[in-house]
Amino acid sequence: MSPRRRSTETWWQALRRGWRVYHLGLPEFRFMFEPPPPNEWVALDCETTGLNVRSDEIIAISAVRIVGKRILTSERLELLVRPEKGVSADSIRVHRLREQDVADGLHIDEAVKRLMQFIGSRPLVGYYLEFDVAMLNRAIWPLLGQGLPQPTVEVSALYHDHKFRQLPPSHQQGNVNIDLRFATLMDDLDLPQREAHDALNDAVMAALAFIKLRDLHERS
């Protein structure tokens, strides 16, 4: 165990990490449990055939690395995934990916392996990331015997905290209604918007929002 790991990890966290590494289904992915590179993250997004985590499928995965305040779009990951059940008309209206567009895509096992190699041990960033991670973990669990170990950063939660801090104390009581829609968030932060429901565009926009919100928090 490295000195850096010892200085930032409790004995319980170290024990749990060791247990997860020991029981890892594919030992070649143990690098995901190492300390992350300093000041680096990965923003990711998935397009799916629907919103049911148990029955719908991933058809596209995109991810970009964030280093400090830079988004490394030149080192992005873009994957199309071949679904087993086809693509419904309703989902095509959302992400515009037709069955013929993903017919030559990767098998989901190969896609998540490439994604894990790309992520490494970096924390994950995204907009409503919980859904994407749940979909990915459904595919990853049969391979690893567990889900992704990286910590996650939810952009909508950062934005909520940012807007809450701007309220006068008299308005910080009870339920506070803050518009967390992606377009609203991007517009309010004065960030460029790309066409939504495209995995790469959504990953890049989440990365932009993450960098801007971190900067605003540091200034305040």
What do you see in this structure?
- By secondary structure, this protein is an alpha/beta fold.
- The chain contains nine helices and five strands, in the order ααβββαααβαβααα.
- The protein has helices at 3-8, 11-22, 89-95, 99-102, 108-119, 129-144, 155-166, 182-188, 199-219, and strands at residues 40-48, 58-67, 70-80, 124-126, 152-154.
- The model is unreliable at 1-6 (pLDDT under 50).
What is the 3D shape? Answer: globular
Low-pLDDT sequence parts: 1-6
Counted by DSSP, the helix tally is: 9
Beta-strand share of residues: 15-25%
**How confident overall, as mean pLDDT?**
90
Number of domains: 1
* Topology order in helix (H) and strand (E) letters: HHEEEHHHEHEHHH
- The CATH level-2 architecture is identified as 2-Layer Sandwich
CATH topology type: Nucleotidyltransferase, domain 5
Radius of gyration: 19 Å
Structural class: alpha/beta
CATH first level: which class? Alpha Beta
Largest sheet: number of strands, sense, barrel closure? 5 strands, mixed
What's the CATH superfamily, by name? Answer: Ribonuclease H-like superfamily/Ribonuclease H
